[in-house]
Amino acid sequence: MTAIRVRDLRKRYGQVEALRGISFEIEEGEVFGLLGPNGAGKTTTVEILEGYRRRDGGSVDVLGHDPQRAERAFRERIGVVLQHSEMWPNLTVAETLRVFAGYYRRSRDVGETIALVGLGHKRDDRIKTLSGGQKRRLDLALALVGDPELVFLDEPTTGFDPQARRAAWEMVRGLRSLGKTILLTTHYLDEAQQLADRLAVLRDGEIVTIGTPGELVDASGPTEIRYRLDGELTLLRTDEPTRALHELTGRALTEGRELRDLEVRRASLEDVYLELLREEEAPE
Amino acid sequence: MRLFLHQLRADQLVFWRNRESAIFVYLFPVLLFLLLGTVYGGTYEGRPVVDYLVASLIAYGVANTAFGGLAIMLVVRRELGILKRIRSTPLPAATYVAAALASIVVVFLLQTATILLLGKLVYDAAWPDDWLSVALAVGVGAAAFCALGLAAAALIRSSEGAAAVVNVIILPMTFLSGGFGPTRDFPDFLQRIADVLPLTYFVELIVGIFVHGEALWAKPGTIAVLVLWGLIGAAIAVRRFRWEPRLG
Ligand SMILES: Nc1ncnc2c1ncn2[C@@H]1O[C@H](COP(=O)(O)OP(=O)(O)OP(=O)(O)O)[C@@H](O)[C@H]1O
Ligand SMILES: [Mg+2]
């Protein structure tokens, strides 16, 4: 089953064309990552799917609903972490979650949800005393307390320390294993690689590539061989790494020279990503 | 209804938990009443001054609480992103707004009751004769000023400015409309301004009931002006109210 279907989605803000006709589908139970530099249109896309913003063109289907109509039945089924939001500063974590839990016909247990995001030791503390990362975890808890089928996470781990990020990853994996569908945006490539079943790279309102993390890396072409000879750094790109390396080391051996800092590497997702963004900038 | 009560309870919790809102919105008019009651006594035009004070401070309360308190509360929540966040939950927007209004009205009613009670206990003010008129006048005033509070929330751009803007409106308005004492000796142009202020009409109504023992129905024109102001506020709110923070 398809959870989200987006066709030729367009959005403009005055002169700014924020989305120039993007299309993608997300299957039920899939974790889909949306990557892209600042201003690429990630938040715009996510907020159209959540029902916050109206589209200017194209069609959108989320769990069989048109989010633009923001029906209550639709909102019962989604969970949302906004890129920015705050909560009542003087309520405690548990009180805030109880308020939100009351909005849903069917909600998760409040204590369990707090424990799930690792705020158990803060449950009776006021929100204004939480750190930035702890507030973000509260946002996550608020998104989950309605026991949604589909969860939107707009940069959910921004501001997390490395340990908290790992914990959040575990949580997302946990949600996935419960069969939830997740759409997340992130600036962190390792996060996308770790979590996303498939991902799309957005730039300037267009999808420049879409696929599994593995496919993106495979499509990236040549292997890189780097070495330093006579103090000079050389970079070699090849589709035949075995032969290239053999020739290179063979020559060095016969000449009795050392290839310092020799390194063979496949492109990482990060290389692919940066390459994609660079290609797009070139025509200027 | 269950959702409405749930949200009303949440709004009450948020209100009383925040010391600033509890003190400035609920307590301040009460303290002002005690202060003025201690300073001024005796009679004015043959009526006990404390009756004027009770009426005046209820009028100040409607401006301070139903109008100002509501506007500030909504602007702050909007700018924090709380309104936006709640919009993607199943809580209907109308239920949310209804609960927010009800919550501030609860505060205003408690405040009014406190002033009445302190007037009686501390300054030996007489109870009003006509409780029905009191209840209806307070209800009409609360409704009109809540509507104006919604309009103000829609027009105010930032939470930093909200308290300042609201006070710049409330204090001169209360002064000009007779909430802080008779305006008979004011220069003509100030009285002209007062003639269009909604609070002038609420003061007229409430002073009539508390001081002169009139019934609410004695002043249909006054009620009509209040209702008109309420409708203007509601119209602005419907057209301009936003759930999302302003950008930048
Ligand atoms: N409400 C708005 N009004 C006007 N322009 C907007 C609005 N929201 C976004 N934009 C513009 O649309 C473009 C896409 O913005 P969007 O917030 O979707 O990007 P993003 O990919 O989420 O960026 P970031 O990584 O910084 O969060 C940007 O050029 C932005 O300036
Ligand atoms: Mg964004």
Blueprint (SSEs and pairs):
The complex is a heterodimer of chains A (284) and B (248).
Chain A: E1 2-13, E2 16-27, E3 31-35, H1 42-50, E4 57-62, H2 72-77, E5 78-81, H3 93-101, H4 110-116, H5 132-144, E6 150-154, H6 162-177, E7 181-186, H7 189-195, E8 198-203, E9 206-211, H8 213-218, E10 223-229, E11 232-238, H9 241-255, E12 260-265, H10 269-281
Parallel strand pairs in A: 3-7, 3-8, 5-6, 6-7
Antiparallel strand pairs in A: 1-2, 1-4, 8-9, 10-11, 10-12
Chain B: H1 2-17, H2 19-39, E1 43-44, E2 47-48, H3 49-80, H4 82-87, H5 93-123, H6 131-155, H7 159-176, H8 188-196, H9 198-210, H10 220-240
Antiparallel strand pairs in B: 1-2
Helix pairs in contact in B: 1-5, 2-3, 2-5, 3-5, 3-6, 3-7, 3-9, 5-6, 6-9, 6-10, 9-10
Question: What is the SS-derived class of chain B?
Answer: mainly alpha
Bound molecules: adenosine-5'-triphosphate, magnesium ion
Main beta-sheet annotation of chain A: 6 strands, mixed
Query: What general outline of chain A do the C-alpha atoms trace?
Result: globular
Uncertain ranges of chain A: none
Order of helices and strands of chain A: EEEHEHEHHHEHEHEEHEEHEH
Main sheet overview of chain B:
2 strands, antiparallel
Estimate percent helicity of chain B. over 70%
With strands numbered from the N-terminus, the spatial order across the biggest sheet of chain A is 5-6-7-3-8-9
Task: Specify the number of helices of chain B.
Answer: 10
Hey, which two chains have the biggest interface? A-B, 27 and 22 residues
